[in-house]
Design goal:
With 210 residues, the chain is an alpha+beta fold. It has helices at residues 11-22, 42-47, 67-75, 85-115, 119-122, 124-145, 158-167, 181-191, and strands at residues 2-6, 27-31, 55-59, 62-65. Helix 1 (11-22) links the parallel strand 1 and strand 2.
Length: 210
């Protein structure tokens, strides 16, 4: 059985939990509160030197870090991870876009504005850039979705999971999705997929051993 080290309110951690739920895979969940430094202990850093969650233990002392790498691992051999060469490349394209264009802006805004007490004041200098670049990314997504239901391979894939995780939190960090009707319709389609679980759906956890 997998062991997932995760923080419930983390968008990156949510990607892994959503994929595992939709694939009906059993796993043990250990909650790690990064805001309390639980990912920076010597014990956790021995598992993942980057000190980040999510982290998936796939076999004794074998760990996979980075949320999108975890998505490819757990979804391998399923319809969520395309095997066709072009479909696979298209899926990767949008997952790279998520990490380089969306997560650094929507993800950063969500972390500082929604999770960190006093974060707005601490990061006031960065807000304008987050908004500008975040809206640009949403515009790219809107253009792509105007004629498509999903991002890659003509169906729901891990590219959609990767992009959904922070996009569905945009309203919590000053972004207005009203000008993006195709994105909003896509969010509804993701939430209608079999096995969908919301970010804050309670999941039995074990206390962090660290």
């Amino acid at each position: 059985m997998f062991t997932l080290y995760s923080m419930q309110r983390s968008g990156n951690s949510y990607k892994a939990r959503l994929a595992l739920a939709q694939l009906a895979l059993d796993y043990r969940l250990i909650e790690i509160d990064i805001l309390r430094g639980e990912s920076r202990t010597p014990e956790f850093l021995a598992k993942n030197p980057s000190g980040q969650v999510p982290l998936l233990e796939v076999a004794p002392d074998r760990f996979i870090a980075e949320s999108n790498a975890i998505l490819w691992y757990v979804a391998g051999g399923t319809t969520l991870a395309p095997e066709d060469r072009i479909d696979r490349a298209e899926t990767l394209q949008w997952m790279f876009f998520e990490q380089h264009s969306l997560e650094p802006n929507l993800g950063a805004a969500y972390f500082w504005l929604a999770l960190v007490k006093g974060g707005r004041e601490l990061q006031q200098h960065a807000l304008e850039d987050w908004m500008e670049h975040g809206y640009r990314s949403l515009g790219i997504m809107e253009d792509h979705l105007r004629k498509r239901d999903f991002f890659a391979a003509g169906r729901y894939t891990i590219a959609d999971i990767a992009l959904y995780a922070y996009t569905h939190l945009a309203h919590l960090c000053d972004y207005n999705l009203m000008p993006f009707p195709a994105v909003r319709d896509w969010l509804d389609r993701v939430e209608s997929e079999p096995g969908y679980v919301a970010m804050l759906t309670p999941v039995p956890t074990e206390a962090a051993a660290e």
